[in-house]
Amino acid sequence: MENIQMTARRDFLKASAAVGGGLTLGMYLPLGAKVAEAQAKTNSPNAWVKIGTDNSITIMCARSEMGQDVYTSMPMLVAEELEVDINKIKVEFAPPAEVYINSLLGGQLTGGSTAVRDAWEKLRKAGASARMMLVGAAAKEWGVDAGQCKAANGTISGPGGKKTTYGAVAEAAAKMEVPKDVPLKPAKEFKIVGNKAQKRLDTPMKVAGTATFGIDVRVPNMLYAAVAMPPMIGGKVQSFDDSRAKNMPGVKAVVQYSRGVAVVAESYWQAKKAKDLLLITWDEGPNANNDMVKVWAGLKDASNQPGAVFREAGDADGAIAGAAKVYEATYELPHLSHSPMEPQNTVADVRADGATIITPTQFQQLVPFVVAGATGLKPEQITVITTFLGGGFGRRVEVDYTIDAAEISKAVGAPVKMVWSREDDMTHDSYRPGGYYKVQMGVDGGGKLVGYRYHGTSPSISSRLFPSIVKDGIDPFAVEAIDNFPYAVPNHKLTYQMHDTGITPGYWRGVSHNLNAYVVEGFIDEVAHAVGKDPIQFRIDNLDYTEEKHKWSGLSAGVAVGGRLKKVLEMVREKSGWGKKYPEGRGQGVAVMEGYNTCLACVAEVSVTKNYDVIVDKVTYAIDAGQLIHPDQAKAQVESCTIFGQSACMYGEITVKNGGVEQTNFDGYRVVRMNEAPKAMDIHWLESNNTPGGLGEPATALVQAAIGNAIFAATGIRVRKMPFTPENIKGSMKA
Amino acid sequence: MMISFNLNGKQASADVAPDTPLLWVLRDTLGMTGTKFGCGKALCGACTVHLNGNAVRSCQTPIGSVAGQKVTTIEGLPANHAVKKAWIALDVPQCGYCQPGQMMQAAALVAQNKKPSDADIDAWMSGNICRCGTYPRIRAAIKDAARMA
Fold first, then answer.
1. Which of A14, A188, A215, A235 is deepest in the core (most CB within 10 A)?
2. pLDDT of residue B63 exceeding 70
3. Quick check: A672 contacting B, CB < 8 Å?
4. How many helices (H) does chain B have, and how many strands (E)?
């Protein structure tokens, strides 16, 4: 695990990324050697805390707020040790800087459910260090020992009734030496961390309608751009006729840029109307004839390759050949769109002497480098301002749209707000890759699991974005939730075969957990039923209770966590009322997983109508995520993951025809709506002071498996092809 | 063409083509960016505003049809409105992008239904998409708001 993280870190820094429209930028972020230093510097109070002479306290938020609550939970960590009122501070999004690098990812990047995990110690230390310097400055001024002074609520009190404020000593504090030894409060003294009543700091402005998302940014003399991009993945502009478009009212310019044609006008609507009048001939590129027949034939064909072994013990094939009973199955999982509610957009102001890029991004650190590549400016000439993100889900790890906006701004010599339509967004996404999975389990005469084969075939996201973390044919972001296969089977062989489908793959909330957890937990459920065991008890009986180290899942616990998984299974069994008898068409399904060092068990309760429509009646979770920072929003993340995962497994499917994505808007790409959301959600936490685990993603994957297993319980139909549409359920009947 | 209408209780006017959607007049011409663009086809509800008290999709409402009428946006929904209070009390928003549309849709419901059932809420709110999955909290907040309203 350590190796992976180190390698991942190097690669995020040396991002040899193919970004946007086939434009390949060989980039080197000149920070590699400075990572260790940057982590040490993290304790500098100036990077995280700004204290005004007016006693205003500003805490920097170095992660992107896309709904997951970093705007509140990150400052809570600082404020806990800084001893300030969390509800009176200001929060500012941090600019790209070394000190803000996410140690778990090696870049200033929001993703991988790492924000809290990375910040847990770092931000409390930053707060404590700042407090110690403030107290030290006051003590020095008073000529007393710092140990005689106490900080609370932004004020410092000393012997003999001395009192001062943070604001009054801030300037002196900034000149104090940064403390080397920064002790932290024990958990039982937490006042802010873990406070169940804490409110989100961004709610008031989001309710007022005043929170600024990228699409809301307005700068002086700004023009608006609407764009036309190739309808087929990998296409390019061959030629275009703008004779009608350029004469439309308000139009200032029509410009070709790397991946399309932009109409720039005084307002978005003028730009959009004119854009619709462009006549463009496309060079259709290498995927021009791609369609789903080819995609699936390609995946199935590739799955006949042996693949790369990422985990092996004993002789799996031999054990299966000699087993009393062998169960096997294949699973087909579709490509998915991110579709955040805010379509991609960026305000770019590219000038001769520099550029300002204001954008909703998950990866602000990468923006100066790609914009430099696109404009000829130097990275240090580029200022990046991160706004609120109207959803991210991994889509905004990609910086393609910032390049587009910069090119357009440069071409017209003015600040430009480029706004994608929903159609642009859905057809120019990077998609959760589909996959084809083959699994086998051998069981001996006594019902013991003796041999397990797992062979996954799917596109490799990292091969496109961060190729050097791909080693020996294995993409660590393709084997999550399977590298840490949680069951003890003495003979096992787990393999991965990468295969490009011609549909651009991207990191999508939960990444490969979504693929592998469904297969692992769906198949173990099949085996449990086949051997006539209760699915929860069967899992508990077969969990891996060793402390075996796992090699590839860089963001997971890194070791077998059978004991923790057993606890959440037992808790969910109790809380869900497991084992209830249901009428035909109704049932409960269970799934369990460790991801991002969080252990979760989920029981879904579904009804399946005569027409094979699935209704999710209730979802119950038991979760061990260690210490919760902001409990109400930890819960909100599980609610969010549940519905995101439900959208995926019930409706989600991106298809291509003639090389282009067929779904263009929310009519063709269905997502869960109010009437389809689970009727009840019941979320339980294992009390813990352990280091926090990630929560922004894992339930997304898990709930899909639980729903699939519940459909089986309700109908006796094992659906191995997602999404769970009536067509796919009916199509699975005989199997 | 100059078109005038009542926006949040004040006179507003815009010199734009009459087929321009109200959404873009609000956002680009008048700088009222609380109303969001989500799909452009009345499929997601992010752009919901009130036209004479009724919830409408501003992306499908040509400004020409709004002349002389009364438009209320999220900025014009009073801070002490039951919906805003309930949304704050339950910390409904996550990314928050769809929430102005959700709240305007919800405000139109609680104005006419003091005790909406789950089925009422499903029927009334199913045109508004939230990708963060805040539906359970929206449902609870609507019930609270209806009680307060």
1. A215
2. yes
3. yes
4. 5, 5
In order of A208, B51, B85, the CA distances from B79 in angstroms are 7, 19, 8
Establish how many alpha carbons lie within 13 A of residue B129's alpha carbon, considering only the half-sphere containing its beta carbon. Answer: 24
In the predicted structure, residue A43 carries a pLDDT above the cut 90: no
Which residue is it, tokens 């094992």? A718
Does the interface predicted TM-score (ipTM) exceed 0.95? yes
B72-125 pLDDT, tens per residue?
999 999 999 999 999 999 999 999 999 999 999 999 999 999 999 999 999 999
Please provide the average confidence, as pLDDT, over all residues in chain B: 98
Contacts of B41 in chain A (CB under 8 A): 422, 665-667
**Is the pLDDT assigned to residue A554 strictly greater than 90?**
no
Placement of tokens 């005004």 in the chain: A52
Confidence (pTM): 0.94
How many angstroms away from the CA of B73 is the closest CA of chain A?
Answer: 9
- 90-149 of B, contacting A, C-beta below 8 A: 91-100, 103, 118, 121-123, 125-139
**CB neighbour class for B10 (10 Å; exposed up to 12, middle 13-18, buried from 19):** exposed
| C-beta atoms surrounding A445 within 10 Å | 9
Burial of residue A461, with CB atoms counted within 10 A of its CB: 0-12 exposed, 13-18 middle, 19 or more buried: buried
From the list A67, A202, A269, which residue is nearest B132 (CB)?
A67
Q: Is B80 on the interface with A (CB under 8 A)?
A: no
Q: How many CA atoms lie within 13 A of B76 on its CB side?
A: 21
Separation between Cα atoms, residue A109 and residue A104, nearest integer Å: 10
- Using a CB–CB cutoff of 8 Å, tell me whether A579 touches chain B: no
Nearest chain B residue to A681 by CA: give it: B136
pLDDT digits (tens, 9 = 90+) for A311-337: 999 999 999 999 999 999 999 999 999
Task: Tell me the C-alpha distance between B54 and A111, whole Å.
Answer: 40
Residue A45 binned pLDDT confidence (cut-offs 50, 70, 90) = low
CA distances from A37 to A96, A107, A130, A575 (A): 16, 14, 19, 47
Given its phi and psi angles, is residue A577 left (phi above 0), alpha (psi -120 to 50 degrees) or beta? Answer: left
